[in-house]
Amino acid sequence: MDVGYEVVVDDKWNASIYAPGHNNPTCKIFFILSNHLDDFLDEYCEKVRWKPEDGQLYYYFLPYGVISNSTFINSAFDKEYYNFGNMFKTQEDAEEAKDKIKDLLLNLNQHV
After folding, report:
1. What is the average pLDDT across 89-102?
2. Which domain holds residue 89?
3. Is residue 37 included in any domain, yes or no?
4. Whether the model pTM is above 0.70
């Protein structure tokens, strides 16, 4: 899943990294070699979870594995899905998460 960081090169040696929807940098870096920027982002930058704007479509999965979608209106339903981590920007992201959760549950059930 792509978090979607925006990297703004401030000058020859410095860059600011912004998480989606944030006006202040998530972190600033001093760099010489930029070929390891993705590794740096994963290790040192705060990850900000995607949250839809009012009226924006989002995807989630139901307990039996079916992917569904809804329009975000900040309802109690929307808040519960977001707080549980079951709110995704794309159907593909929801499918990927569903598969990981299914594997985790099947593995846990083998050890009970």
Report:
1. 93
2. 57-110
3. yes
4. no
